[in-house]
Amino acid sequence: MAQKRILVGGAGGFIGGHLAKHLKAQGHWVRGADIKQHEFTDLGLDDFVLGDLSREEIVKQALDGIDEVYQLAADMGGAGYIFTGEHDAAVMHNSASVNLAVLENGVKMGVKRFFYSSSACIYPERNQLDPDNPMCSEDSAYPAAPDSEYGWEKLFSERLYAAYSRNFGVPVRVARFHNIFGPQGTWTGGREKAPAAVCRKVAEAQDGGEIEIWGDGKQTRSFLYVDECVEGICKVMESPDFAGPVNVGSEEMVTINQLAEKVIAISGKKLTIKHIPGPLGVRGRNSDNRLILEKLGWQPTQPLQTGLEKTFAWVSEQVEKAKTASK
User: Fold this and answer.
1) Which domain of life is it from (predicted)?
2) What is the CATH number of the domain that holds 128?
């Protein structure tokens, strides 16, 4: 395998950090770029550009000498950040600005291929009202009606990458992520996603106590462990002729109550669930993997249980470290 010079935008974040380490382990020269260093691990990359990729001087520094770009940098978080409405302007402006800067400068500087990380949040709200039968096939994205500004920005950026690919002849690959989770990601502070939040709540709870879940807990989701997400990204990026967009997610759909019950069982504690008001997102969402299986012969296989065991163990360590540090 020939060594490539790769830029991972968003390498200071959860998925980007795992991806950058994987690409480095594959023997490539890898530069990360982000507004922050990775909080939980030493990435061990060849270079790291610390700064805002929407700024021209930063993005040019990051793109210098690069063959391929994996663009995961975005202003994002879990339901407590995305669905309150309080951060809509920042989410749309910041993420779109990064994608515009990376694409415009990347094309000018001779980048040979781009990967863009989109999201299942682009799918229309009308297709995700039934928690038992959500429709998230790739061709259901239009007529567009995402339920959040985060989803609208992701859909705009999908079209942005496709337009640059058509007009400038540069190959682009796009994947729509479905709820990626695992260790070394945000687990507290308001931007964490459901699996990390539930793991934290269970780890912090006293045996015999309770944890809080937003809504009635009957909303459904599927969750993909980060190692399989990285594998899916590489399959999409390496495809000679299939550009996507394509779902990268699990088809093992659970309710949020079931997710919480799984984590409680892993912990060995006896806990009850208390339902409280909170931002929920769509009523049901599940990956549809027919297209990725047809085009790339790949789909994830790891059970949710396995990933939750690894994630709970890691989050529990963070909770204990935080307790020790506060003493």
Assistant:
1) Bacteria
2) 3.40.50.720
In tens, the pLDDT along 177-199 reads: 999 999 999 998 888 889 999 99
For position 85, what pLDDT does the model report?
80
Over residues 215-247, the pLDDT tens digits come to: 899 999 999 999 999 999 999 999 999 999 999
Judged against a pLDDT cut of 90, whether residue 269 lies above it is answered with yes
Residue 150: active-site member: yes
Question: 70, 116, 123, 150: which is the annotated catalytic residue?
Answer: 150
The separation between CA 81 and the C-alpha centre of its own chain, rounded to angstroms, equals: 14
Q: Degrees (nearest 5) of the Cα angle 12, 102, 112?
A: 105
How does pLDDT run across 105-156, given as a tens digit for each residue?
A: 999 999 999 999 999 999 999 999 999 999 999 999 999 999 899 999 999 9
Question: Are 24 and 149 contained in the same domain?
Answer: yes
Question: CA separation (Å) from 75 to 72, 170, 191, 269?
Answer: 10, 25, 10, 35
What is the spatial distance between Cα 60 and Cα 109, in angstroms, rounded to a whole number?
A: 8
Distance of CA 324 to the CA centre of its chain: 30
For residue 266, the enclosing domain spans 181-222+252-287+303-321
Residues with Cβ within 8 Å of residue 138, at least 6 apart in sequence: 176, 244, 245, 246, 247, 288, 291
DSSP state of 115: E
Does any domain span residue 293?
no
Three-state secondary-structure class, residue 41: coil
Are 211 and 142 in the same domain? no
DSSP state of 125: G
CB 232 within 8 A of CB 298: yes
Q: Regarding predicted confidence, which is higher, 83 or 277?
A: 277
* 196 closest CA partner among 173, 216, 226, 170: 226
Examine the domain organization and report whether 170 and 270 are in the same domain: no
100 and 186 co-located in one domain: no
Give the pTM: 0.94
Count of domains forming the chain: 2
pLDDT score of 25 more than 70: yes
Q: Is 314 helix (H, G, I), strand (E, B) or coil?
A: helix
